[in-house]
Amino acid sequence: MLLWLATRYMNISNMEPVIERIEVPVQDNTQLLILTEQLGSSQQQVKFLDATIATLSHQVANLETDLENTQAEAKKQKGRAASAHTSKGQILEKWAPFVDHPEIDPEWEAENWSFMGNPIDYIVWDYRKDKNLNLEEGMIYIMDVKSAKAQLSTKQRRIRDLVKAGRVEWREIRLD
């Protein structure tokens, strides 16, 4: 309602005033007094409506300012919440080798976890000391730790797809 009144006022205030000249033959002073009172009353109504519109326009401006401030604060709070989730995720990444979770084999020793950080969090070396047993049972796990509703990045998904497709190769590089 306030916005409509303010809009209406702006539309009206931008219009050229329409002044219509009305000539009324006056037969006596009583009729002249009545017309003068009507004119005065109309002028008072115009002043009252102008004051009301000004007040409403001021209220609308205040509400718009409040809305902008509220939206800015909500954006800041959303950023803070996202930052907190990121921090929580980073902490959980560091503690993953020590956490009891269905995807983590309890026989994996923490010292066999190598933290990579980016784009993959860990490589877990589940190897056996006996060469033949190692070839039969040993595994290398490439893992990424996520918390809450976090998703793999595009790069992480591409790496996951390559690993699952067996597109992994060992290379030994000697630098002299």
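That was protein one. Protein two is written in the same sequence-then-structure order:
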Amino acid sequence: MTTTDLTSIAACSLDAGAAARRAADFRALLGPRLRRLRRDGASAVLDLEMGVRAERELAGLLELERECCPLWRFALTRRSPRRVRLEVAAEPPFGDALDAFLSLAGPHESGEPVLRAGEAARRAGVGVETLRYYERRGLLPRPQRRPSGQREYTLDAVRRLLAIKTAQRLGFTLAETKEILGVTRGSAPRDPAALRVQAEAKLAEVEDRIRGLELMRVELRAVIAAECEALIDCGCGDCPIDGPAHATPERLLQVTQ
């Protein structure tokens, strides 16, 4: 299997004639209906203007393709009465096969510029080293490379970087962010409730932290009000932080009132 032999990619276990017909069927369905294509590493999203009948034909072709080449992952969903979305990815190590499959949709332009690392990082408001760190951590797909080895990024990579920054602002760790991105973006099956569930758990964590900070604030005010001189063996008298009755909310409020 090679990325230059389109018929072998489209139907790798068929004979040459059947493979050519399979490829032609894909071209006939995808080419005239492609309205938008977004590539994200080894996965892609195709937005197609397609009625119900054509959708059924495409679903049948995709099922045949799965049986023929298990390396593919497909997800076909209707977005509106006239629009469907096809998500396609190739299992490792066959990521390059995606280029061949996308060519079956005919010549296309994504309409998005190709960005160098510095420009992609600038648009997202991060440093180049941060961008590459996210790649190493698996939060950002490995970019395409030119023959010279120079990395190429798309606006979708910038959007993903912005999503990572938003998650960090909301208090999510990088590990939590990776989990959220895994079920809300790319080719993985969507879980509409994933972000809400994670947000509820993070909110509970933040509220616990706030309660701890509020107690800390009361304790600090009590220390100031009592004019404490030391953390232990304090000579201020009825010390709110030293002794058997220290640091209870009731005790601290009594001192500050």
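Residues 208-256 form one domain. Keep this in mind for the problem set.
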